[in-house]
Structures are given as C-alpha cells and as structure tokens.
Amino acid sequence: MTAIEVNGLRKSHRGFEAVKGVSFEVGEGQIFALLGRNGAGKTTTIEVLAGFQRADGGTVRVLGLDPYADRTALRRRTGIMLQEAGFFPDLTVAQTVDTWRGLIAAPRPRDEALELAGLAGKRGTKVRQLSGGEKRRLDLALALLGRPDVLFLDEPTTGMDPEARRATWGVVRDLAGQGTTILLTTHYLEEAQRLASTMAIMDAGEVVAAGDMAETLAAQAGRVAFRMPAHVHPADLPLPVTLEGGTAVCRAEDPDLAAQTLLTWAAERGLRLAGLEVRTATLEDLFLESAR
Ligand SMILES: Nc1ncnc2c1ncn2[C@@H]1O[C@H](COP(=O)(O)OP(=O)(O)OP(=O)(O)O)[C@@H](O)[C@H]1O
C-alpha cells in the first residue's frame, strides 16, 4: 500500500517557486529520505504533506487523504518533527510531554515516549537547560506521542552526538518495523544511506534523482583511488584516471575488477599502488553528482 503520494507538487512562497513539480511515492512501513542542499524545497514539501500549507499545484495524498482538506482526520494519524520546535523554556521535559499529551487522543504514556527518545533521565530538567541534541530528542518524543502511522522527521538528528544519532536510527528502524511510514530529511548522507530504503534528491525545487536506495547506488560507478607512483604519467595507466592532488581516481562500474587490472599492471612493472582504496558508490557520490 502507498502511504504517501506526491504528484507534480508545486508550491510558491510570495512569488518564489520553492517546489516545482515534484513527484514521489512512499510505501507503507518504508523509510524514505528526502535529500537536497539548503533551500532545495524539502521543508516546504514536508509542510504541504503535513497539511500546514496548501499545494499550489499537483496532488498530494497521505494515507489516501488530502493533507490540507482532511487535516483534522490526518492529524490523529501523523507525527511531525520540524526543524524549529516551539517549546516553553521554563517547563520541564515531563511537563512539556504532559502538556502535549493533553492535546492528543489516546496518547502514548509519557515515560514510554521519553524512553523511546532516550530522554528518560531528563524528566525533571527544564527545556532551556537541554542541549541542542536533547531538544531534538524531546521533539522526537512529542512526535511519537500519538502513535502515528506516518512520521515526518525534518533533520531529526541535527546536533546529536554519534551515540544519540545511532540510538535514534534504532528508534526509527523499530517504528518502521512496526509499520510506521517515515519520511525524513537529513544532511547526513551516511544516515540516509543506512536508514532509508528509498529516496529522492531535490535541487532547486525539482527531483534530480530518485528510487530504491540499493538499486540506485548499485547503478552508480564505484571508485578506485591510489597515490600516483613517481615517474608514472596518467596516460601510462591501463584505465583512465583523474588526478586529485597526488591521488589518482578511477571511476568504474566494477571497482573490484578495475583494482585488479591496476594491481596487475603495477606488479608487472614492480610498482606499488600506495594507499589503495576500492569502494562502491556512496550516496554522497550520487548526491554530489546530482545536486550540482
Ligand atoms: N515562508 C517563506 N517565505 C519565503 N520564502 C520561503 C519561505 N519558506 C521557504 N522559503 C524559500 O523556499 C526555498 C526552499 O526552502 P525549504 O525550507 O523548503 O528548503 P530546504 O530544502 O528544507 O532547506 P534546508 O536544508 O536549508 O532546511 C528557500 O529558498 C527558502 O528561502
């Protein structure tokens, strides 16, 4: 079942077209990463999907409903974590969660939400005393209170330390495993690559690459890099390379095979390929190539 459908979405802010005909789909229980540089239009897209803004063009459906027209019905079934949360700084973490619980039908117990977000030890701490990463965790706890079927996470791990980030990935995976559909944005491409099964890269309001994460990356060229041996010219090598400083970089569909070819060539000449690195394409490679 498709949980989120976006077809030809257009949205302008005071005459500036931030989203220019974007289309993608997210299946139920999938983790989908919406990627792109600053200002690409990701938050605008999420705000339309969450029913905060009306689309100027195209169609958008979340759980089969129009997020703007049916926002009351959808609000009960969606959770959202935006980039800037409006907390009351003098409330404690527990008071903040309790206040939000009062606004939600059949909310999750407070301690369960805090436990899930890794904030159980901070119940009595005032919001203004939380670190940036802890505030993101509080945001996550609030987004989870309504046991949403669809969760929108706008840069959920910004400011978190590596351990907290990994813990949040665990929470996101568990939720998806239980059937929650998750759309997230992030500037941490490794995070997107590890978490999401599908993705779209936006640039200047348009989708420039999209699809299944594993398939899309497998179709990208991999990379073999090594320090250029002394007195060797790139034209002497058996495969084309580009030079990045003193490092020769060879892009190849099958990087293992390319590395073998290069190593055999080097061995026959008694040369060493120092600092040899062989890897398949990463999301960062794809991102840098797509979002130019
Ligand atoms: N309310 C608004 N009024 C005017 N322009 C806006 C408004 N909201 C967003 N924009 C502009 O629309 C464009 C897209 O913004 P958006 O916040 O959707 O990008 P983003 O991809 O989420 O970026 P980031 O990664 O920096 O969060 C930007 O150029 C932004 O300046």
Automatic annotation (TrEMBL):
Its main location: membrane. Signal peptide: none annotated. It holds the Pfam family ABC_tran. It comes from Nonomuraea phyllanthi. Gene3D superfamilies: P-loop containing nucleotide triphosphate hydrolases. One of its GO terms (molecular function) is ATP binding. It comes from the Bacteria. GO terms for cellular component: plasma membrane. GO terms for biological process: response to antibiotic. The lineage of its organism: Bacteria, Bacillati, Actinomycetota, Actinomycetes, Streptosporangiales. It is found in: Cell membrane. InterPro entries: AAA+_ATPase, ABC_transporter-like_ATP-bd, ABC_transporter-like_CS, ABC_transporter_ATP-binding, P-loop_NTPase. Keywords: Antibiotic resistance, ATP-binding, Nucleotide-binding, Transport. It is a peripheral membrane protein. This is ATP-binding cassette domain-containing protein.
